[in-house]
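In this section we walk through a basic example: taking a raw amino acid sequence and producing a predicted 3D structure, encoded as discrete structure tokens. The instruction is simple. Fold the sequence below.
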Amino acid sequence: MILIQAAPALAEQVYEAILDEICGGRLTPGTHLKQEELATRLGVSRQPVQQAMALLKADGLVEEVGKRGLRVSHLDIDLMHHHYEVRALLDGLAARRCARRLAKDEAARKTFEQQARTILADGNRAVTESDVPEMIRQDEALHRLFYEACGNPLLPATAEPHWRFLRRVMGDVLRKAEPPRDIWLQHEAIVDTTLKGKSKRAEKLMRKHANRAADLLATNTDDGTNRS
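The resulting token sequence is shown next.
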């Protein structure tokens, strides 16, 4: 039997470093990625860079360009809408279930509120510092909190594939489509509504939040669909 080994932690660190540069706009769509240069710049060997590239390719963040190697993928607007459409449903479900659960469980409510307020504070701090990668990390942390607190253990794993694609998209939203401060005001409204136990309202706000991001990016992007 062949033992399957997890990806080395170093490759995951390289993945996150390159992802941060894509999300932050340092590596723009169409940029050719030379593994030797990346390895030198990040202070690692080529092997973890190759492993990171395989992960980035699987997530649709980089693509092959014939014999020229790899480049940062252009944004596929249709695919982006598909991911956001599914995420809006999952997030809405999580918000509705959270509001109902927290209304019945005071201990869970207090824990959720403490964690949510911490994430909101960290997210707003990232906005003040114009730290796009950190905004994305805190944004994902808040939504993951809803998944984990809603009482449906299938939601976190179900949502993960969409988040892997949308991390890059969120960078485009923050830089092109919607002021970051507005996004975090929406987050605060969703949290407050959930804590009040207003399940239908929480679901509506959460779905609107996801759909708005997709619509604004599609309107404001000049990147378009995948190109050859």
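Looking at the output, two observations stand out. The CA atoms of residues 96 and 199 lie 4 Å apart. The domain at 9-72 is CATH 1.10.10.10 (Arc Repressor Mutant, subunit A). In the next section we compare this with other chains.
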